[in-house]
């Protein structure tokens, strides 16, 4: 029976393809993540700089009769840098959640920090009959509470930046209309509590304590007791709002804008630098160099009773650069030989340069002539030699290293290399002792 031969050529050829597919998938995922981070950072910076705010609505007049309905309201753009465009509004007059009449507002726009007054064009000339059975009871009290609901679409624009269309819902509640004996009603405007409509969040359906039968939709607006700004047409002396003692610091908005720009610049700079650093790290993938001890010899080791040590030593190492895109530049290399944690001798290694994916042989020569050490070091070396003739040494190196990749260079960092458990067999005849096991891998860290 002839054994079947396994064709390993297809397996070997498929491994590089699998590696390339993995790298391609990693690059695609990295690109998507970076694009998402860049888009998020750009959107955050734009929002911090522009700081878009919703428009403010004020009901100025509301006249209701059986023959006709008339309503005027004002819209203010509180943004300093953003213009507003409106595609018109659909206006509904309500009484106790019952539709009274329906109208519309034409297309209009607002420049930044400006306002305009709009008039509603009602489809039905007066009140729909049969829609408000409780209206007669309210008329006996000469006052009726109406609600006005407006739905529209708005755009924000600052220079060439245009937002997508936003649905805008405005609800102005409890508009008190006083009726005269002739059946005509006019809006009661309290100067201490002007009626203002704001697009607001849905988590606070009754911000002023008014009970509602049904919770409003997100983006609705409510009456708000605050005086209007003193910009735009509101500076008219005949406006009753200006009769109040209201002062607005003209420099406060400027200071807020300046601080917002500073914070936006700092946050944007941090995000950009972090993104660039992350991209560079993903592209270059820097790795620490690798070191191994190829040979370690000790000659003429003498240890006196007066705690003096003399010897010569030669160490040969191999430094490997595992990076595919980064070169290494070593400078100011210091090496020391230790017995456990006590230094015996030190030397300096000449600087060298490593190309990508390359290895460099490094040689260090040590010499100690009557160097003084602690008595415990002398006792430890004599004990090791008397036991099995082997003495364990440690090698430590500190170097300044710089990573380079074409035009990109890092600042010099201190690289620490530790080679431990270098066991050298010391003969008794005075010959050189050699490393018992080679090679020995070292640990490197920054």
UniProtKB/TrEMBL annotation:
Pfam families: LEA_2. The chain crosses the membrane at residues 24-50, 262-284. SUPFAM superfamilies: LEA14-like. It is a single-pass membrane protein. GO terms for cellular component: plasma membrane. It is found in: Membrane. One of its GO terms (biological process) is defense response to other organism. Residues 194-244 are annotated as: Disordered. Residues 317-408 form the Late embryogenesis abundant protein LEA-2 subgroup domain. Keywords: Membrane, Transmembrane, Transmembrane helix. Residues 197-224, 231-244 have a biased composition (Low complexity). InterPro entries: LEA_2, NDR1-like. This is YLS9-like. It comes from Olea europaea subsp. europaea. The lineage of its organism: Eukaryota, Viridiplantae, Streptophyta, Embryophyta, Tracheophyta.
